[in-house]
Amino acid sequence: MPSNITKNQHYVPQFLLRGFSDDRSNFEKISIFDFFKKEVRFDQSIAEVFSQNYFYDTDNEIESFLSREVEGPAAGVIDSVRKGDFSKINGSSFSTVMGFVMCQEARTAEARDDGLNYINASFGQILADFSHFNDLDLGDINEWRVTPSDKDSMRSFVVARTLNGIIDSVAMKDLRFHILCNETEQEFIISDHPVVRYNWLYRNLEDPRVSSILARGVQLFVPLSSSLYLCAYDPKVYKYGLKNSDSSSLISINDVEWLNKLQILSARSFVAFSANKMKSTIIDLCQKCGEGKIYTRLSSHLGRENMKNGDVKTTHMVYTKQLKLQTLPSFFKIIKKSKKLASHFEVRNSDTAQALQILKQ
Fold first, then answer.
1. E strand or H helix that includes residue 217
2. What are the residues whose beta carbons fall under 8 Å from the beta carbon of 257, sequence distance 6 or more?
3. What is the model's pTM?
């Protein structure tokens, strides 16, 4: 194996994490809160966190592709945003940033686990039906899991999801970006699954499709630094900031906490931050959030059919339940004429939905 192979591969890029460091460490260290150990570890090297050995591959083909084609182009744009230049995010750099955002949503350890949870929600329902109709005692169905058989198979699963995220970005071109500038004393934090998808329009709608990237009212939230947050939203449903402005200032700590809670609710194992003074705030927010998740994968038995040959056919559905957040932040609102859409599910554009389906075939 070549000596220049990158072994420790980041599923949250280092350039993004540096936005949560400071010049005391030359922007190379951050502090993290470990959910499992319930402890804070200060001054951790960015090179060693939010990463796993050979997470994508052992030959660096995918690692190099992500660095060259996804992270590199996006890093330049995000660096400009951090310096106060927001002029290109909804112009020439939109596709670059959206490609990065959708890839990032799909490439983490949490995204890997979520994909397996989706598969096992389906498998569990099939197994439950099989057990019931054949009068078998299989014990706790939740203890039966489908998982890739070895490390190479698991890496292939991760890579497939990662590349699928890039393809999904094609369906998000009708969204718009908005930058939130934090002017409070509380910092933004970042988790090991930093891209959070939510749909406030459908917050109260009981429909299995509300989490879809194609849904009307979809939103994406991504922290860029301890003082900047990137939002992507459906402009036909929401209003962010002032007219003709791609940024707005946050002066309410409640809004900052709302965004930080999103990171906690989406995290797998860690959240990271800059200032040591954030320790007690993060512990308090974790206690408030509990162990909930933005999305939960579930399955449901829909019915059975007795076939002419004596077989039994069962039908089931795997779906995603969205957490019902309680407080609407002040930095966006639903456009008045769009409020009536909240009672029924719609895709934003049926042609885009069809094109994406064809692209993935």
1. none
2. 186, 285
3. 0.93
